[in-house]
């Protein structure tokens, strides 16, 4: 059994818009559609109960965020595979078939994603996932088809199935047993970066993450927090630092986080120069909160800490330098052989 699970929070308008296509293109008897509701205050549950009474709903008692909400909802399901799907995603015919076939054929793959295109710019990749995610040596995420705010037109240049470092939470298929083997999402993150952290921990266990671009979906993006929201900035910076702290160790961690401090302060000054005081404050707040929270991940020095798997899917250089100083705006220019 495969459970396609939408975590909803005040997203009734997206449910109205995108559920019909999901139902139309998800018809296999071994696939169920589930909507888990993070204590919405709109009429999401009323809409589902009246318009789609056959869809299974899970009502949570409060907003646990992306990480906690999914953890609590998925614990209530007995499925071999989970598909985590954002409410603002439009699926296409056969979108799930390719993912399912590949996962069944390759047991070493713990999680995968389809190609993610922009709903508003149908011919372009979408920010959250594009054609598979990567990180550089300092933890900055990027994708085949998107580096920072530059998204490429999809001309088929990244249509090969490939191993990646992370698969997007906007549309993530994952083996249920592997999800729980690494204890699911880190609920301390609340939202943002949790899927990258999850994929990192899966790779530390020896599993692989893939993108299968034969499958394609369209993502609106920014449905909960838009790109310029200072709270989103706070979550992204705090959680990225926590991810590095918990997954790196020894001198590698020390050096990486020292460089990140310089980069983060540069972002603060850049935002101040632009007059964006709120986002500058958000970065500083993120760093303060990270310093308070990192003790959550400290372990007994006598105990064995899992060694980091530095795969080929971690870019060994600085993507900040490549993008801003060397004008490398596309994935192909950054990593030509990929």
Could you tell me the CATH topology label of the largest domain: Spore Coat Polysaccharide Biosynthesis Protein SpsA, Chain A
Q: Write down the overall geometry.
A: globular
Distance between the termini: 34 Å
CATH superfamily of the largest domain: Spore Coat Polysaccharide Biosynthesis Protein SpsA, Chain A
Summarize the topology.
Elements lengths: L1 E7 L3 H13 L6 E7 L6 H8 L4 E4 L5 H10 L6 E5 L3 E2 L4 H11 L3 E10 L14 E4 L4 E3 L2 E2 L2 E2 L10 E3 L6 E5 H6 L12 H11 L3 E12 L10 H18 L2 H24 L3 H17 L20 E2 L3 H7 L5 H4 L4
Parallel strand pairs: 1-2, 1-4, 2-3, 6-13, 7-14
Antiparallel strand pairs: 4-12, 5-13, 6-12, 7-8, 9-10, 11-13
Helix pairs in contact: 1-2, 7-8, 7-9, 8-9
Short description, anyone?
The chain is α/β, with parallel strands linked by helices and 338 residues long.
Would you give an account of this structure?
The protein has 11 helices and 14 strands. α1 (12-24) links the parallel β1 (2-8) and β2 (31-37). α7 runs antiparallel to α8 (250-273). The protein folds into 2 domains: 2-219, Spore Coat Polysaccharide Biosynthesis Protein SpsA, Chain A, CATH 3.90.550; 233-311, no CATH class. The two termini are 34 Å apart. It has helices spanning 12-24, 44-51, 65-74, 95-105, 176-181, 194-204, 230-247, 250-273, 277-293, 319-325, 331-334; strands at residues 2-8, 31-37, 56-59, 81-85, 89-90, 109-118, 133-136, 141-143, 146-147, 150-151, 162-164, 171-175, 208-219, 314-315. Strands 1, 2, 3, 4, 5, 6, 11, 12 and 13 form a 9-stranded mixed sheet that branches. It has a 3-stranded mixed sheet with strand order 8-7-14, with no helix packed on it. A two-stranded antiparallel sheet has the order 9-10. With 338 residues, it is α/β, with parallel strands linked by helices. Helix content is 38%, strand content 20%. The longest helix has 24 residues, at 250-273.
């Amino acid at each position: 059994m495969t459970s396609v699970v939408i975590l909803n929070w005040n997203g009734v308008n997206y449910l109205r818009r995108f559920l019909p296509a999901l139902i139309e293109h998800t018809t296999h008897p071994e696939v169920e559609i589930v909507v888990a509701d993070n204590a919405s205050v709109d009429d999401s549950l009323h809409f589902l109960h009246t318009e789609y009474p056959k869809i299974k709903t899970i009502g949570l008692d409060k907003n646990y965020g992306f990480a906690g909400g999914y953890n609590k909802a998925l614990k209530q399901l007995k499925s071999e595979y989970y598909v985590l799907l954002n409410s603002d995603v439009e699926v296409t015919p056969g979108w799930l078939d390719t993912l399912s076939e590949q996962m069944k054929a390759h047991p070493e793959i713990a999680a995968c994603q389809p190609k993610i295109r922009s709903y508003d710019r149908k011919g372009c990749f979408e920010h959250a996932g594009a054609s598979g995610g990567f990180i550089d040596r300092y933890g900055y995420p990027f994708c085949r088809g998107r580096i920072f705010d530059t998204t490429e037109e999809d001309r088929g240049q990244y249509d090969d199935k490939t191993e990646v470092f992370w698969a997007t939470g906007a549309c993530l298929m994952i083996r249920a047993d592997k999800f729980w083997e690494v204890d699911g999402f880190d609920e301390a993150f609340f939202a943002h970066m949790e899927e990258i952290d999850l994929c990192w921990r899966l790779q530390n266990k020896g599993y692989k993450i893939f993108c299968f671009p034969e499958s394609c979906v369209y993502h609106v993006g920014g449905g909960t927090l838009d790109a310029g929201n200072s709270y989103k900035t706070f979550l992204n910076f705090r959680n990225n630092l926590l991810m590095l702290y918990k997954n790196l160790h020894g001198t590698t961690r020390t050096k990486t986080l020292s460089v990140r401090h310089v980069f983060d302060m540069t972002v603060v000054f850049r935002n101040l120069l632009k007059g964006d005081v709120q986002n500058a404050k958000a970065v500083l707040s993120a760093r303060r909160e990270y310093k308070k929270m990192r003790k959550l991940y400290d372990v007994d020095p006598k105990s064995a800490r899992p060694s980091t798997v530095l795969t080929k899917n971690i870019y060994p250089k600085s993507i900040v330098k490549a993008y801003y100083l060397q004008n490398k705006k596309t994935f192909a220019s950054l990593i030509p052989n990929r």
